[in-house]
Amino acid sequence: MRFGVVPSSVRRDVLAWHGNAGQAWLDGLPKTVWRLQRLWSLRTDGPPYGGGSHSYVVPVRRDSGEQAVLKVIYRDEENAAEPTALQQYAGDGAVHLHEYDRETGAMLLERAVPGNRLKSTRFFGHRTPEAAWRRIGIACGLYRRLWRPVVAVDGFPELPAATEMLDLWRAEYGDPQGDARQSPAAARLDFALELCDRLGNPPELGIGNRDTHLGNIVSAEREPWLVIDPKPYLAERAFDGGFLLFMLQHHGPHSGAELLHAVADGLGVDPERLRAWALLRAIDNLAEAEGERDVAAAAATVDALERA
């Protein structure tokens, strides 16, 4: 199995975010891929997929000739439990997990064919508001299906808790000398702390997804659409919609109260808890924004969610 070139985005981000540890992961990739292809009897079926930030992902074929995808991740808190979620989804609305390597966190996954991303799929009148609502409906339907209680399975990582995200924001935003107090979001940090308190006692807990967006849904034959690349957290249902609503508001074309209630109804969640999670994601984005244009866009998103 010939080792393909690591996509530039993966190399750049792993090195920027993880330094020497990231370099060690990159240096070990060829050996890891070679070991896994022998372990799972795989052969390369094309070049590595481009894009991404934490994973080397390459199309492969199994001994049977079945198409699959080998995904070797740089494990961190966000993605370490991806195999746990996929194992429990069991292919219901998401790609199947065929194999999992506990040593590295690598996975052998179902290959979704044709694999076109929902966000760029052309529906009839694809630039119209109606087509945008259709995409939103598909996404909400899938993420609603995927939320479910957690069943512990030996050998699979535990899910991090969404409440730990709230604790991190409390510590960051509550520090009067911290970087956040000098960021473009400084005027909104006290409000963000109030939101953290509101969300501190979730009404239920299950497998939530930190990274809900239209780019993580792809077309397939087994089902019309499947979720890929989940970032699972132990979370309430409304947590799923936090990033989805933020992204939809930020990029349009729909916005405001109509968008808020469409997502809340699609996910079956309390719109106020959904809005609170979306606002926290939007304020976090504003705190990290740089450049006049990006800051203005991030601030507009926060304003729109506040008014929704």
Automatic annotation (TrEMBL):
Entry superkingdom: Bacteria
GO MF, any single term: phosphotransferase activity, alcohol group as acceptor
Pfam families in UniProt: APH_6_hur
Gene Ontology annotations of biological process type: secondary metabolic process
InterPro entries registered for this protein in UniProt: Kinase-like_dom_sf, NH2Glyco/OHUrea_AB-resist_kin
Name the UniProt record assigns to this protein: Aminoglycoside O-phosphotransferase
